[in-house]
Write a structure and sequence with these properties.
The protein is mostly helical. The chain has three domains: 135 residues, no CATH class; 73 residues; 100 residues, Arc Repressor Mutant, subunit A (Orthogonal Bundle). The protein is 61% helix and 5% strand. It is built from 17 helices and six strands. It has a two-stranded parallel ribbon with strand order 1-2. Strand 5 and strand 6 form a beta hairpin.
Amino acid sequence: MIADVAQALHPVRPIASRVAAGLRWFTENVEEVSALEFRMKIRAGLNAGNWRRHGEQLIRDCARHDHSVLLVIDELPIFLKRMLDQHDDGAHRVEEFLSWLRGALQAVDARSPVLIASGSIGLAPLVQRLGIPDRINHLDPLRLGPWDRHASIACFERLAASSRHPLRVEAGVANAVYEAIGLGIPHHVQSFFARMWEFTIMQKRDRVTVADVDTVYRTALLGPSGQNDLVHYQTRLKEGLEDDCYTVAMEILAETAVRERFTPTARRCLEQCYAPVVDDVRSRIAEVLDVLMHDGYIETTTDGFRFPSRLLKDWWSSRFRDHHIPLDQRLSSAATVAEATR
């Protein structure tokens, strides 16, 4: 991560020159190396004994710059999760890194650098599970919610107006797109436009109608061309959860999609189903529900949980509706078998 930050700073020559000057092994002039070479040379000189010291110096060099520096670390939770999974002492490494980052930032002028840590999975659930929530108490959480109807429509219309292939849009198309996906997740709005654009190219048309919205939704967004966008939602769960919790999460999402709700009754059935194979299953289910709500998969209702996004609900339902046995029916079947055995 330190080497990546150094590479990003390479174009800011005053900082890059300070960084290079503080490294004994860096003999070249910053002007003479590319950003990639700069990163490779710095990475080659970092090791388990000196990365903290050189990382702190890099942050101090940012703080000394004439202008405020915005330090953005994307997918920090994934970085930490991989560290956790790939090393026997992963939990210790995660705690060590977060403690170091907090201390390094608090040791410099509070005005700079300003840190933004972002991710497609939540950072808070990870540190809470590890029992180290205080390691991120210097960060202010900010949840980026979905767009409202107005913003979603404006984005779609702007994309249509600026597309490289002239695209005429019938009145009401952008609103129908918003109704179809059910929630203004920016990436879903953009993805819908991309599939609509491909649809007109393949149909040799330069105009889309409201009637086309449902066709594109069913055959493209939920079809093969939309899978790369949506499978990410399953992948990031697998990266962010332990194996037992991942299995429980998939059960909850399948039940919620197929039955429209994950009810308190379904929750009790899930506990009974998995109690023989998952330790402390009740706490595991509670932990998974927290993650699923935190990361925007589901939301609470008066009678349980549901998908706020129609697109995600329909995608999960299309994958599981033909072979998902509702949780209450599983328990009923098991009870019938047990009675017949007796």
